[in-house]
Amino acid sequence: MKTALLTLAALLAPEIASAAGQHTGGHGTDHGRTNGRAMAIGATAVVAPTRTVEIVMNEDYDADSVYVFDKKELVFAAGETVRLHIVNAGEEVHEFVMDTAAANAEHKEMMVKSPEMAHDDPNSVRLGPGEEAEILWTFGAPGSFEFACLLPGHYEAGMHGPLTVD
After folding, report:
1. What is the rounded end-to-end Cα distance, in angstroms, of the chain?
2. Which residue, among 88, 81, 39, has the nearest Cα to 67 in the 3D structure?
3. 7, 74, 75, 129: which is deepest, by most CB within 10 A?
4. Model pLDDT, residue 83
5. For 75-97, what is each residue's pLDDT tens digit?
6. Rounded to the nearest 5°, which phi and psi values hold at 102?
7. Which domains does the chain have, with CATH numbers?
């Protein structure tokens, strides 16, 4: 019985880790709650996703926007559960954070003061070059939100976009 439980735990661990994001330590969250507040954008998925959306992060040193996402905007339906497959195809560390513009602005200011701050937020991942991660997410009520990389200088260099929940 003990062996069976350990085997089951080992098989489920990657799924649990991907659903919670990839930052470690830090803010402390609980299934779509950040610092004890419910997230307007939704919560960690508890049901299977209906589709997968790949989001690639990169650099483009010849463009006006040095740091880029391959998606200019993201649109989801209220209540939709999605697998966000995040890929860092660049040569630098990047992160993907989705939240309200106000929450991202607050988080961005914290990142300026502590750029190596560790996180454990279900709505975000930080990836080194060549790394990939998943966020399994159920979007909440309709509204206008934002996705961004909040590492110092990345947002200002173009790494952000609108996220709409219809």
Report:
1. 47
2. 88
3. 74
4. 98
5. 999 999 999 999 999 999 999 99
6. -65, -45
7. 2-165 (2.60.40.420)
